[in-house]
Every structure is written in structure tokens, then in C-alpha cells.
Design a protein that fits this description.
The protein is α/β, with parallel strands linked by helices. It is 29% helix and 16% strand. It has a five-stranded parallel β-sheet. Strands 1-2-3-4 form a four-stranded parallel β-sheet, with no helix packed on it.
Length: 272
Amino acid sequence: MIQVPEQFRPAINTAFPPGNKPIFEEWFYDNYNPELEGGREYLPVFWTGYYVNNNYGNDKSSIARLQAFIDTLDTSKKYYTIVQYDDGILNDISGLDIKVFAMSGPRIDYALPLLCHPHKPLAPVAIRDIYASFVGSHTHPIREHVFALAGIGGTYISDKPHSIDEFTPILNRSIYALCPRGYGQTSFRICEALQYGAIPVYISDEFIEPQGIDFNTYGLKIPADQAHRIMDILLEISPENVYAKRVVGREVYRNVYSFNATRNYILKNTLS
């Protein structure tokens, strides 16, 4: 592991979704085991915390300070790093032999799921009485197609703030959890939906999927140009397919959308 000055490893000063601390970048560092290091050295810059804490990457002096450190790294070595930040790595790393494990951004060498810590477990319900749900804000035009579903029978669509204790029972009662992209390319709701046994419906103009498993086996992707047909598309899915997606979703949540599983995936792919 490369020794990175503490100023470039700040804990993020906000939590989204609520309770999601530490984020995966920080958790990976806290649980780092040097005995598992492969053919590349871990570069533990906390990109997300650093950018968010410095005016979301708009503080040019902070970007310059980090760049000055990056420019001191030995270009003959091989590195890997992890980034959650919506806009990816804003600094210039083009001079490094580095693998970027990313949840979002323009450079993704290995795609990771957008993870959040598990919320409080809830007992399964006998009948899921919400056909499709979404609770969120107006952060991307795609979401307007989702908000247009408000009032349709069987849906729960809201742009009002909900506490976690109000939000998680809605997921627990939902067959489908609508997961439209927001500012970033993907959505925390995919991970949250899987925790509560709902089928994530990923609505986006570009898809970032965890590598190694087909998203359509446990969820559904709806491209932007079909977002006006959300309910029609969902109604075309057979009950048998709904059941199959939920079964696979339980396994995927444990084996893909968890911190430990994602750490193992990263380490496996840093051996070369």
C-alpha cells in the first residue's frame, strides 16, 4: 500500500443515504490486509471524501494539492485505486499504470456496484401490496417519467423527504423499486432494493453494471427513450419471471452487493 498523506484520506463529511458511513473507499482502507496484496499496490486516496469536502471538486487549490502528490508517485510501479465519486477521478492519473475500480465516472476499468451499508432488517411481508415505488428528488430529467406515475393504482411515488424508518418499509412492501439515475450514472436504490427483496428497475441513459453477472437476471434495465413506458414494460413481465428475479436477487445481494464481496472482487483482479 502506498503511503498517502492524511489530508488526502478525509472521511466524507456527509452521509447519503442516511447512515451510509463509512463509504466503501474508507471501509476498504480500514479493513486493508497487506497479506492479500497482489501484483499492484493500493493507492488509498479517498477521492470521494476529498472532493465532496472541498466544494465537490470545485476548489481548484485542493485539486492542485492532490495533483502535486500524484505527480510524485513512481511511474514504474503498478497501482490500483477505488472511487465512488459521481464524476470519477478529477485529477490527472494518465501517467500512472493504474487500475481504477469505480462505481461511476468517465474512467471505469472495473465496474463496482454502488454500495451502501445495510439498513435495519425488517421481517418479510406476506403480501407485497406496492407494485412499484420510488422516493426521491428531481435531480435528473429521467425522474420526471417516474414522478408522472404518482397516483396510478399500486404505486407509491413521492418527492417528499422520508426518514430511513419511513422509507425502508416501502421497499419491503414493493415488488419493483424504481431506480432512476440522479446526478450520478447509477443509484444507491439498487443496493437498497435488493436488501429488502424488491426487484430494482434501473432507468438510465447509460448503465454501469457490476461485472460478472447479467443485471437482467435480478433486475430490469429501462433505457431513457423507453422511460415513458415504465408501467407497460413492468406489466409484460410474467409472475414466474418476477419470482426468478427475486430469487437471484437474494443471492446477488450477498455475493455482489456487499462490502466483503466487493473487496474480494477487487483483490482478485489486482493479482496481475
